[in-house]
């Protein structure tokens, strides 16, 4: 058994770390100030400028196939890089990426949607959740009915990330109520904003915010169907599945940085004539955080490795998402506790992380949905206890 990184993995990970440390972290103070004024920490043009700088460093399209100019990295390397990005709270991500399901586009759609998204010229969003259907995504109601060569979309999506900024949405609609959502009754459509949907900002405890998307008789040409008629729910599940090991990878970076801050603080802050780190109460919080971080690391890397083996990653990814999301919440909570009153202020990023990481237990499958998947796999015998070593 070998738990080490290859030389190539280490070199790419270290270069990503250098980029984040030298080019992104210096922007943190300004980003915090802007967020306090309810402005984005990084605006669209600044993000693009940073992404183009990263391209010169060699980082462009981590998951994008080489034929589209990307790096097409194995999942383990993508995971390692997402961890590096998690170290900064500036809302940065490497450029050259597009939603995984846009690769189901036909040639014309690729020119119109996929390639401009990879190039950063267009912003996409993905919409399946509705006011009455989140975890129970099979209960969606937004309808699409045929009308000549077009389809007419009616209904509402909610909590859509990038929904306020997106130029187009990949929306899953019910096209055949009788077949049902799981029986091939849904279809994904590529819908430009100027076709008539509108977005409404939703205030959340996090920075930025998702949006509700309202479709009121929105006419969409049949050529904008993504994939096949009836494939909508399947594509939706593929989109959601992609993030299951990347979200906790990002969480790992946040937890590592936050724990590092707590250790520095415990080694300098004095009470009752000695460092707070000399107290067992503080030592235990640090120890528990390190153990949970390390456990999450291997669950996450194992999930990514499963993807690279070409095996079904769902079970491993659900375990990584469930544990990673809980871990980062617990670690950040302890880091705040160790910092005392300072941890609660907006002088430091801890309260920001505290608000940010709470979302990780909710979106792209709640804790409860991950538990449902994990237990169902075991109860029905799809997976053996002991994973790939069983
Ligand atoms: C900031 C943000 C960004 C998001 N981005 C997107 C996006 O880009 N695109 C998109 O389509 N969606 C997006 N979502 C939606 C997100 O995926 C859903 O909020 C999530 O799936 C939970 O659905 P819900 O909010 O309807 O909660 P519900 O499904 O109503 O669940 C409420 C509670 O009940 C629990 N629960 C539900 N069913 C069961 C059960 N059978 N057993 C046990 N417990 C259960 C849940 O775990 C949860 O705790 C986003 C959400 C947020 C908050």
Automatic annotation (TrEMBL):
Annotated organism of origin: Paractinoplanes lichenicola
InterPro entries: Acyl-CoA_dehydrogenase, Acyl-CoA_Oxase/DH_mid-dom, Acyl-CoA_Oxase/DH_mid-dom_sf, AcylCo_DH-like_C, AcylCo_DH/oxidase_C, AcylCoA_DH/ox_N, AcylCoA_DH/ox_N_sf, AcylCoA_DH/oxidase_NM_dom_sf
Organismal lineage: Bacteria, Bacillati, Actinomycetota, Actinomycetes, Micromonosporales
Name assigned to this protein: Acyl-CoA dehydrogenase family protein
This protein's UniProt keywords: FAD, Flavoprotein, Oxidoreductase
Domain of life assignment: Bacteria
Family statement drawn from the similarity comment of this UniProt entry: Belongs to the acyl-CoA dehydrogenase family.
SUPFAM superfamilies: Acyl-CoA dehydrogenase C-terminal domain-like, Acyl-CoA dehydrogenase NM domain-like
Acyl-CoA dehydrogenase/oxidase N-terminal domain location: 6-121
Family matches, as Pfam families: Acyl-CoA_dh_1 (PF00441), Acyl-CoA_dh_M (PF02770), Acyl-CoA_dh_N (PF02771)
Known cofactor(s): FAD
Transmembrane region(s): none
């Amino acid at each position: 058994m070998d738990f080490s990184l290859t030389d190539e993995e280490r070199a790419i990970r270290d270069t990503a770390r250098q980029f984040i440390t030298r080019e992104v972290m210096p922007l943190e103070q300004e980003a915090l100030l802007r967020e306090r004024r309810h402005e984005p920490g990084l605006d669209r043009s600044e993000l693009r400028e940073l992404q183009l700088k990263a391209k010169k460093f060699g980082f462009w399209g981590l998951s994008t196939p080489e034929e589209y100019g990307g790096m097409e990295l194995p999942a383990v390397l993508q995971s390692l890089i997402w961890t590096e990005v998690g170290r900064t709270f500036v809302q940065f991500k490497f450029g050259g990426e597009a939603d995984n399901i846009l690769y189901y586009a036909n040639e014309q759609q690729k020119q119109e949607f996929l390639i401009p998204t990879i190039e950063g010229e267009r912003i996409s969003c993905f919409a399946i959740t509705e006011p009455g259907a989140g975890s129970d995504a099979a209960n969606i109601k937004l309808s699409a009915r045929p009308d000549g060569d077009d389809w007419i979309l009616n209904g509402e999506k909610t909590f859509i990330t990038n929904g306020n900024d997106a130029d187009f949405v990949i929306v899953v609609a019910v096209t055949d109520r009788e077949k049902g959502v799981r029986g091939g009754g849904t279809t994904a459509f590529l819908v430009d904003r100027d076709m008539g949907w509108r977005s409404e900002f939703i205030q959340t405890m996090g920075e930025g915010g998702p949006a509700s998307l309202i479709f009121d008789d929105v006419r969409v040409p049949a050529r904008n169907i993504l994939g096949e008629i009836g494939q909508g729910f399947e594509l939706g599940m593929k989109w959601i599945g992609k993030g299951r090991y990347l979200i906790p990878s990002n969480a790992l970076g946040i937890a590592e940085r936050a724990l590092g801050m707590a250790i520095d603080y415990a080694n300098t802050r004095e009470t009752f004539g000695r460092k707070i780190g000399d107290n067992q109460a503080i030592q235990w919080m640090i120890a528990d955080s390190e153990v949970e971080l390390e456990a999450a690391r291997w669950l996450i890397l194992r999930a990514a490795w499963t993807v690279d083996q070409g095996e079904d990653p769902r079970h491993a990814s659900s375990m990584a998402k469930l544990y990673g999301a809980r871990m980062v919440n617990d670690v950040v909570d302890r880091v705040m506790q160790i910092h005392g009153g300072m941890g609660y202020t907006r002088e430091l990023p801890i309260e920001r992380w505290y608000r940010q990481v709470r979302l990780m237990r909710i979106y792209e499958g709640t804790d409860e949905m991950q538990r449902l998947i994990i237990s169902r796999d075991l109860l029905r015998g799809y997976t053996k206890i002991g994973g790939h070593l069983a």
